[in-house]
Amino acid sequence: MDLKVPTGAEKLIQCLEREGVEYIFGYSGGAAMPIFDALVDSQIKLILVRHEQGAAHMADGYARATGKPGVVLVTSGPGATNTVTGLLTAHMDSVPMIVLTGQTITSMLGKDGFQEADVTGITYAVVKHSYLLKKAADIPRATREAFYIATSGRPGPVLIDLPKDVTQGPCDAPFVDEIDLPGYAVPSNGDPAAIRRAADLLQSARRPVLYVGHGAVISGAGKAVIRLAEKLRAPIVNTLLGKGAADETHPLHLGMLGMHGTAYANKAVDGCDLIMSIGARWDDRITGKLDEFCVDAIKIHIDIDPAEFGKMVTPDVAIAGDAKLVLEELIPLVSAADTKEWLDQCAIWRQRYPLRYAKQGGLRAQHVLDRLHAVTKGDAIVTTDVGQHQMWAAQFCLSTTNRHWISSGGAGTMGFGFPAAIGAQLGCPDKKVWAVCGDGGFQMTQAELATAAINELPTKCLIINNNYLGMVRQWQELFFDNRLSGVDLVGNPDFVKLAEAYGIKAWRIRRPGDVDRILAKAHAYDEGPCVVVAEVVKEDNVFPMIPAGAPISGMIIEKPREKMAKPTGST
Asked: 3-state class of 202 per DSSP?
């Protein structure tokens, strides 16, 4: 009996099934129709979104919450280019993602056919790797390679561009299991000599700090971080994306460092004699004025990506390897150091410079987020958008569990929070998932309310509504003589009515006395998605704050009384 030869699209879907793909986040169109047709007979569930950017952020949230690659399927031209923001977001934050794009037929490539775009060229700078497949026989090999590249070493997004004649034509190529990528090497355990040198330096330090980044989240290094900190008796700080790698409620944990980190974390970094980066890249939000950052401190850098060594800071010891594996080799080589005086000093800073917010004068975003942490008991997955609410959530919503904090870091992508929560909810159906959004960012992807409603997801969205682009307004107030420009979001919709228009349960908070009651109601509501709108004071600022281009020692604890000079660094 003759067996039917599958089409390229059918072979592609079979390859995805072999990779264990559960969901594809997508939006259909002409050039991708053969792939969408093949999905009809697959066990893979299509999550039909309302915008391709939403699909990319959902795949991103799914990947960050589960550790498995998220998959996106869109059509050619504008369908593909609408994923670029999501690709940038995933690329900057090292998130494994596979983006499948339809393309015009091969004979029309480069001829400006309908909905043609040079997608591989357009996305070159925001992917880890990309493919333009011109033969159906290449589908099994490229798919297997794409998943391996996206998930190995430093993860990242991989794009596969698929012309329509390739996906609708026959494909009898066998499945591929073995990978042969000459020149692509992934570090793992780290150099023993470098690890020994790092151990010696840690042993002799009297004021050490363990600086934990997203690489520790990706590798699952959190327990090893805690063991090392307890053995050394060294304080821990984390980046925005490093939240949750090590339990932020641990007595040795000082919280987030950097531009809007806790004052006591920044004081510790500024006063340390050794700082060890564990899967963090010394980005500008952490270092402030680079030539004044930890000038006299020993610097150790553990990273899976050797390209990060010396890019911002030249380390005294660089260890290329998986953070968890390196720490597990390092821990037996160290013993308790004499850090009592240092820990006592850190305790004094913690007591002297706690996070504060006004208890009077209306509903405060800080109060709402502080109580969200109390209501969830720190056990929910929290995704955020970008802006003031993001920083307040990072300060007050402490993360105790790995992969329970999801935020756009390097790209700072507004519109990320809500679709990322949808992806996280699909990946972790038994977990409570809260999206914390600002009124500005939420409106960029608010159409995905339909996606949450149709799929009956119990995702919860907290909109911190101050009717401003709050972070930009804060900078204009502090550094531009309060000359407000392009920040007043007059014309915001009634978000409660908007949610209800999609058939979604919604509540509004206007008074501090209603916060706990309404958050508890929303947290308990699992019959579908729900929205909570907190109508907070319009003009409030995030502190502490290190102005861009300023050293850590220039940190502002509260609103300054004198006019400040315009910052020299990036916003």
From this structure: helix
**φ and ψ at residue 95, rounded to 5 degrees:** -110, 130
- Residue 555 has φ and ψ, to the nearest 5°, of -60, 140
pLDDT value of position 568: 66
- CA–CA distance from 340 to each of 228, 250, 345 (Å)? 16, 17, 9
Strand segments (E) across 287-417: 298-303, 317-320, 381-384, 405-406
Q: Number of structural domains, the chain?
A: 3
* Final residue in a domain of this structure, among 321, 352, 383: 352
Same domain as 328, residue 279: yes
Strands in 97-103's sheet, in edge-to-edge order, are: 45-48, 23-27, 70-74, 97-103, 157-163, 129-132
Report the distance separating Cα 313 and Cα 456, nearest Å: 47
Output the pLDDT for position 1: 40
What gap in Å lies between CA 57 and CA 126, rounded to an integer? 14
**Quick one: which of 514, 188, 510 has its CA closest to 363?**
510
Q: What's the full length of the chain, in residues?
A: 571
Tell me: do 17 and 164 sit in the same domain. Answer: yes
Torsion of CA 423, 72, 83, 145, to 10 degrees: 120
Whether residues 216 and 115 fall in one domain: no
| Chain segment 17-43, per-residue pLDDT in tens | 999 999 999 999 999 999 999 999 999
- Residues serving a catalytic function are 52, 114-115, 164, 471
Question: Residue 99: in which H helix or E strand, if any?
Answer: strand 97-103
C-beta of residue 268 within 8 angstroms of C-beta of residue 254? yes
Give the CATH number of the domain where residue 220 resides: 3.40.50.1220
If one compares 1 and 28, the residue with the highest pLDDT of the two is: 28
Whether residue 464 is contained in a domain is answered as yes
Q: For 513, how many CA atoms within 13 A lie in the half-sphere containing its CB? A: 0
Report the pLDDT value the prediction gives residue 571, as an integer from 0 to 100.
65
27 and 69 share one domain? yes
Task: Let me know if 474 is exposed, middle or buried by CB neighbors in 10 A (0-12, 13-18, 19+).
Answer: buried
**Domain-located, residue 45:** yes
Task: Band the pLDDT of 137: cuts 50, 70, 90.
Answer: very high
Q: What is the CATH number of the domain that holds 426?
A: 3.40.50.970
Amino acid identity of 378?
G
> Are 328 and 370 members of one domain?
no
pLDDT in tens, 295-317: 999 999 999 999 999 999 999 99
Q: What is the pLDDT of residues 239-283, one digit of tens each?
A: 999 999 999 999 999 999 999 999 999 999 999 999 999 999 999
Q: What mean pLDDT value characterizes the chain?
A: 96
- Is 323 found in the same domain as 381? no
What are the backbone angles phi and psi of residue 143, rounded to the nearest 5°?
-65, -45
- In this structure, the answer to whether residues 147 and 107 fall within a common structural domain is yes
Q: Which residues face 162 on adjacent strands?
A: 102
Per-residue pLDDT at 565 exceeds 70: no
Where helices occur in 353-494 by DSSP H, the ranges are: 365-376, 388-396, 417-427, 439-444, 449-454, 470-479
* Tokens coding 426: 């699909």
**Amino acid letter for position 365:** A
3-state secondary structure of 297: coil
Domain assignment present for 559: no
**547-563 mean pLDDT:** 87
Q: Is residue 77 part of a domain?
A: yes
